[in-house]
Amino acid sequence: MTGKLNDASHTPIHLRSGGTSLVVAVDGGRLPRILHWGPDLGALGDDALADLRRAALPAIGDSAVTYPQPVPILPQLAEGWLGRPGLVGDTGGRRWAPKFLDATHEVVDTGEGPVLRTTALDPEYGLTAEFEIQVLAASGLVRQRATVRNDTAEPYRIDSLELALPVPPEASEILDLTGRWALERVPQRRLFHVGEWVRASRGGKPGLEHTMLLVAGEAGFGFREGMVWATHLAWSGNQVLAAERTPAGTRHLTAGEVLLPAEVVLGQGESYRSPWQYGSWGTGLDDLAARFHRHLRSRPRHPRSPRPVVLNTWEAVYFHHDLDTLTALAERGAQAGAERFVLDDGWFLGRRDDTSSLGDWTVDPDVWPDGLGPLVTRVHDLGMDFGLWFEPEMVNLDSDLAREHPEWIFDGGHGPGLASRHQHVLDLGHPGAYAYLFERMSDLIGTLGIAYIKWDHNRYLLDAGHTPDGRPGVRRQVEQAYRLMAELRAAHPGLEIESCASGGGRVDLGVLEFADRIWPSDCNDPHERLEIQRWTGLLVPPEMQGTHIGAAESHTTHRTHPLDYRAEKALWGHLGVEVNLLEADDETRAALARWIAFHKEHRALLHSGEVVHADLADAALRLEGVVAADRGEALYAFSVVERPSTWPPGRIRLPGLDDERHYTVEAVHPGSPPAAGAVLPPWQREGVTLPGRVLRLVGIEAPSLDVDRSVLLRVVSASAT
């Protein structure tokens, strides 16, 4: 259905695309109310849709306040909603209970999937609201956003705007994520009780503790089983995600930007547009995550060339830069198979540690008397491209920039505020600060032929007052960061950007419109990385996650792991190396080269296939992998993460294969072969070929492994061998 709709019609709108149905009630001049969000319902005629609407309406007694469902996508107090409000705003204590009526609706198809556009008025308040609800064709994701315009001469202040996606009564559990530095994406589950479960970020970026997604699902849902629904906000600043269940039984997931006082005040004719709220559903978390992955991969500017293997200098040399050392490191990296050399923090004026010089984006002549040109030339001669670290939004007080322009530093009225990693925040809302950054970064990118920026963001925006008036500047800062990324990319076609924020502190679909990968964590310990990457993968596909092989002794946890385990856990994303190759022996470098070669051989599969996880009964075990889109091949990793209470571990079942095809399963060892005398299950010695249905339902005997050890399983369709 396309075109304007009859306002008096009681026939709901059915948006179908990408395997998803969204049925929306649009009657009575009210805002859209979602009656169904989830599996495709098939083609439904007007009569069936009208009956579906009747079937979905509750029995209402003498008070619509008690039984307000189904709730509009923007819940309103004036319509009897006593839960989390959709729009909070006022004009000097008036116009505080908006009621949007006289809604008109139009369905259009933008080529990316059908969109329901709604315009509604609050004539008493002089407000106009516009809504877009879309089902994306490539993925089946639902997304929605709202725009509120003030049509009167009196300023209208918006304090919050949250949109809602309903979930059915079967959604009885909630999953969200928490974390801290070097331990991002820690899952936590709870029952979906009556009341609100609220996760807010107020540090000017989503943060290390950010939940990223808020999931509601059937009791006991896992990666492969149980219906699940989730919401995500495509925004890199302050935000809130909430799950709410009312005494009347209504359950929904809400999302919106957290606005600071008077951060959005609309003059006459001015508008506020919310970030996109995304919704995904699935049978199990793998299905839910696959929709986000398909969405990201469907974008025209999604990185499609083979992701170059990165050699990053940080853990190898930290701030100790000199041409001879870094040239030798680049040469060792090229020998091992690296394709991109990234010079991390420490290259600019006066930067010997993290206490000074941030913001002075000039190559240090004391360390680099001939500039970075000789290093870049050698890197290019070795067949690698060159990347450089920046932290554009931050500044040290001990820097030329801060001394020359103290007014460019955020100040909430008490000075620059608390330091974090000895740094403060550069206010990109100042045109001069923005122009300075663009000029310095663009000049270096163009002069040196930089192909890649590692874009860091280490400090929260605790005191983000714009000088000289002290008004909040967080929202403007996020918009300006997006603008800077976009303008640098436009000026330098082909430039790639990584979003790093003390690790995984800025991971969202907002920044991923401008960045080509994210850095999930500053922790390269494979024991932790397995879980960090697993849960980050609910949103971000493997090719957009930076996954590096770190030192034998982790620099963050001080655990020690063999190279094979470190390399296997880094295999599953955009591979990189932070091992100090100048100190590694010949055997280590040769094994590392074998792992890099194996990654290159299989990265087309790893960076395009469907990510799958087995739901294993024993919490000590993990099985996950990637299955090709045509189901012709797959690669899995079986890992032991703690000592199981029973031994041997028993059978493991391989998810994601075609039930009807036969597959050959073999264990592969890119680094070192199994130790002589190792106890192996018979199939591992003799090989096995079985139908996908048998591998899914019966499985194979798991290899017996020590803690923090893994085995790679290569599975190939017998017809393809």
From TrEMBL:
Enzyme class: hydrolase
Keyword DNA-binding: no
Pfam families according to UniProt: Glyco_hydro_36N, Melibiase
Catalytic activity: Hydrolysis of terminal, non-reducing alpha-D-galactose residues in alpha-D-galactosides, including galactose oligosaccharides, galactomannans and galactolipids
Gene Ontology annotations of biological process type: carbohydrate catabolic process
Assigned keywords, A-Z: Glycosidase, Hydrolase
CDD domains: GH36
Domain Glycosyl hydrolase family 36 N-terminal intervals: 31-266
Sample GO molecular function, one term: alpha-galactosidase activity
InterPro entries registered for this protein in UniProt: Aldolase_TIM (IPR013785), Alpga-gal_N_sf (IPR038417), Alpha-glycosidase_related (IPR050985), GH (IPR017853), Glyco_hydro_36 (IPR002252), Glyco_hydro_36_N (IPR031704)
EC id: 3.2.1.22
Matches recorded under PANTHER family: ALPHA-GALACTOSIDASE C-RELATED, GLYCOSIDASE FAMILY 31
Protein name listed in UniProt: alpha-galactosidase
Organism (species): Planotetraspora kaengkrachanensis
